Amino acid sequence: MSFVDVIAKKRDGHTLSREDIQRFVGGITAAEIPEYQAAALLMAIVIRGMSDQETAWLTEAMARSGDCIDLSDIPGVKIGKHSTGGVGDKVSIVVVPLAAACGVVVPKMSGRGLGHTGGTVDKLESIPGYRTDLSIDEFKRVLRRIGASIIGQSASLAPADKRLYALRDVTATIESIPLIASSIMSKKFAEGSNALILDVKTGDGAFMKDLASARALAETMVAIGKRRGLPTEAMITDMEAPLGRAVGNALEIIECLEMLKHGGSEDLTDIVVRVASRMVVLAGVETDEATAADRVRGALGSGRALDTFRRMIEAHGGNPRIVDDAGLLPVAPDRELVRAPRSGYVERIGAAAIGRASCALGAGRTKVDDPVDHAVGVIVRIQPGEPVREGQPVLELCHRGGRGLEAALAACRAALAIGESAPAPRPAVQAEVR
Fold this sequence. Notes:
Blueprint: H1 3-11, H2 18-29, H3 35-48, H4 52-63, E1 79-83, H5 91-101, E2 106-110, H6 120-124, H7 136-146, E3 148-152, H8 159-169, H9 177-191, E4 195-202, H10 211-228, E5 232-238, E6 246-247, H11 249-262, H12 266-282, H13 289-302, H14 304-315, E7 334-339, E8 344-349, H15 351-363, E9 377-380, E10 387-388, E11 393-399, H16 405-415, E12 416-419, E13 429-433
Parallel strand pairs: 1-4, 2-3, 4-5
Antiparallel strand pairs: 5-13, 6-9, 7-11, 8-10, 8-12, 9-11
C-alpha cells in the first residue's frame, strides 16, 4: 500500500491500522514522507477524526519516535504540567518554579507559538541568554539542583511531534482533539514525569471553543495517561478573554515577575494557585488541597518561588538580573493606545482577536520560519466587567515602528465590546477531570 492509499483511507472515513500510523510517524520523523502528503493526512484526520484506539497508537508512536527521559535517578516525585495553549497564558512560567519551591520536582518540555497563541519557549527566550535547547544531561542537572526546568523540544525528544507541530501551525490543522491530545501526551510520555496535570483552555482564544469540546479533549488525554500508567488530571480553564494583562513574550515575562513579587490579576492567580496546589497533592507533599494551597500561597508571599525562578533562569544560562531589573528585557520602542469608544462596562475583550493583534505586531508566527520579535505585544489595561469611560485607554499596543500596527488596531477594536451593564463573571476554573 502506498502512502497515498493511507491518506485516502482516512479521507474516506476508515480506521487506520497500527501499521498505518507507525508508517506515518516513522516517515515524518525520517523525512521520508513529503510535507504535502503529511499535511493531506492531517487534514483528513481533522475532518474525519480518529478513534480512541487510533489516538492511543498515534500517541505511543510519537513518543517512541525519539528518546524518553529516565528521571528515576533524581530524588522526589516528578510532576508534569501542560497547557493546551491560550492568549496571555503564562501559567507554566509561574507554576513551575512555584511548585518547585513547594518541594515538587517539575520537568517541563514546552513548545513555541502555535497559531494565535503564544509559546512558553518563545517567552522564556526573551530573557537574555536563556537556553531552551538543553541536552538531556543538562536538563537533569538543572532538575537535580533547582527542582524545576523548562526546555523546548530537542531533536531527540518526540521528534515526530516537533515536525507535525510546525506543520499543523501553517496548514489549518490545529483544532483536532486526536492531534492535540497525541501531541501533548507524546511529549509528556517522553518527559519522564510520574504524574501529570493538564490545563485545558476553553473559550474564544482557545482551540476548544466550548466547554463540551474542552471536556472531550480533557477526558481523551486523561484516558491516554491512565492507559499508559501515568496518573493524569485535567483542569478546564477560561480563555474567553486574555489571561492576565500582558500578551507578548517579554511583556508576559514581566507580568510573571510581578506576580511572583506582588501577586497578579485575579484570573491568573486563581489558576496558578489551583494548578500548583494539585501538583503539590499529586507529589504527596501535602494530602489535601486546602493545606496545599496554603503552602503555595506561602511560597509566593515569602519570595521562595521568585528565588527559584531566579535560580532556574541562571541555571539555563539566562541573566538572573532581570528578576530585579525588568528593563534588561527587550522593550518595544513605540506605543499606541486603543481608547473606549463610549462609557459603560466592558462586556468582552475577545482573546482570539487580541492574539491575532499580538501576532500581527510580530510576537507570533504566520509561517514556520518567521522570526519572533520578543519585545512587542498588547497590554490589557481593563478587564471584562469593569466600568469604563469614553476615551479611557483600554489596550496598549507595544510595536516597532508601526510594523503590523494597522492590522493589530483593527483586531483590537473588533475584540472590544462595551455595554450598559456588566456581564456575569466567568469562573477561571470551569471544570476538572480526574
